[in-house]
Amino acid sequence: MRERITYFRPQDADMDPNQLEIHDTKVQGPAIEALKEHKITLTLPELPSELAGLLRDLEELHLRWATPASYNTLEPFSSRISPGLHVSYTPLKEDHDPEKLCTALQAFGRLDCSSPDVFINLSDGRQPGSPALFFYNELEKLDGFAKRLGPVVCSGPAAAECRKQLQDLKDAVSLDMSYDSTSESVKIQALWPLQKREISVPASPKGRTEVGILSRGAPPGMEAHEIGVSGVLAVIGETKEPSPALFAFAARHRAASGSFTSKFQQPTGLHPTLQLSLSTAAPPLDEDAECAPYAYLTLPKVIFADRYQLADELFLASKNLAAAKYVSEPVDLEAPAYTTKEWGSNVLLQLAPPKGKAAAKDWTVEVPLHLRYLKPSPTGKEEAGIPYPAVFWACGGEEDVGYAVSPFDRLNLGYDGLFSPGTTFWHVSPEPEAGDRLINNISVPVVTEGASQWVGVGTAVAVALGFIWVLMKLMGGYAKSGHDTVAKTAEDEGKKEK
């Protein structure tokens, strides 16, 4: 097992390396303002046998979770996804049954994922090597996950420390878990937000533990697409003094200037409009760079986007949208939520920012959406939470600039598979419209339970009355036609007699 804990400070923060205490069993230091990343790499034999057996049936598996709470971060930890749990994977066999994977995912909470129809297919329109199947579920916190995982992974002399580290997940803002069959290794990364925290890292009883206290730096020869880092590193049990570090790497995810908010226009009705308000339209790079802004939406089954409506160029232009680059399939435009099997859908929209002097001002984007019918409720309304989208500028993309060498690289976020491997994503920071949550709540009108029984009766009565009306019209028409025929026949016979 390999373990790496990184404390990443703002660029202007100072700390004396001599304040670090490096012992054979731990590293301690003063309280500093920093974000914290904890990364663990495990091989299959180091995992519980049941989990290792599950992974051996998969080509790859990627779990991504993000908190619905707003938080501050720093480069190179700028990447964003919609709040909730994102699961993407590729099975080794085509007739793979997802029930085994779904059972393991219940560690996060009660997830409805046992049916193959719940997952959507990601193969179309994505880069080769992208995961094949995808599932999303709302997930507020990791408290339950930490509690359920403790008895499975924490044992032996270090069990108490293991459980403590798991409990710390309740304050994490993101969690990544990845497996690929090529390396047969599992990588787990957790991130905690920028705040004042004490440096305290115990040694891992089963492997190597590296500790870094870093911030932005400027090493010689650093190129424009790279991020420089400086600070100190230490390996518990191997080093007695902190070692200076200064290096640069190409970063796939960067921080763009400005911020955005998301809200539903009022009144919402059954065809709500999601409004994205951005503080600036200025691209992150100069005008010669090929950059365009995008919004990647993760929409639970209660709401969806109509791909045919988003194909109208004039309609899109009126909403400050350039194109719908991707809409996951299938999306049934008529089915109510309670008969829809898929978890929901993903949509990638290219935005159309204002040009010239207007680029420095606030601007808005309107995304037309549609609510599905829900089951009747006692109140006649149901509340639904729609996660904030990820909003970013995508720049470049054709040239491979070596993102894989970054020690903080992040892949398989859903939208990155829709772009060329060399694309740089400049993320616009999300700001809550109100409070501190990155969730848009919407009230969905539904049939009241007491009145729902009359819907069937009313429908039957309406059909019966309609049938009687049509029948009467037919009989009236037949009677009139028959009378006219008899009169005409009598008239013809009279003419013959004359």
TrEMBL record:
Gene Ontology CC terms:
endoplasmic reticulum membrane; glycosylphosphatidylinositol-mannosyltransferase I complex
Keyword annotations: Endoplasmic reticulum, Glycoprotein, GPI-anchor biosynthesis, Membrane, Transmembrane, Transmembrane helix
Q: What does this protein do?
A: Required for proper folding and/or the stability of a subset of proteins in the endoplasmic reticulum. Component of glycosylphosphatidylinositol-mannosyltransferase 1 which transfers the first of the 4 mannoses in the GPI-anchor precursors during GPI-anchor biosynthesis. Probably acts by stabilizing the mannosyltransferase GPI14.
> Major location, coarse class?
endoplasmic reticulum
The UniProt GO MF terms for this protein read: mannosyltransferase activity
UniProt-annotated location(s)? Endoplasmic reticulum membrane
**InterPro entries in the record:** Pbn1, PIG-X/PBN1
Q: In which pathway does it act?
A: Glycolipid biosynthesis; glycosylphosphatidylinositol-anchor biosynthesis
Transmembrane stretches, by residue range? 454-472
- One matching Pfam family is PIG-X
- The protein's organism comes out as Hypocrea virens (strain Gv29-8 / FGSC 10586)
Q: Which domain of life is it from?
A: Eukaryota
What name does this protein carry? Protein PBN1
Instruction: Supply the SMART domains for this chain.
Output: PIG-X
What topology does the record note for this protein and the membrane?
Answer: Single-pass membrane protein; Single-pass type III membrane protein
Q: Which GO terms describe its biological process?
A: GPI anchor biosynthetic process
Q: Of which family is this protein a member?
A: Belongs to the PIGX family.
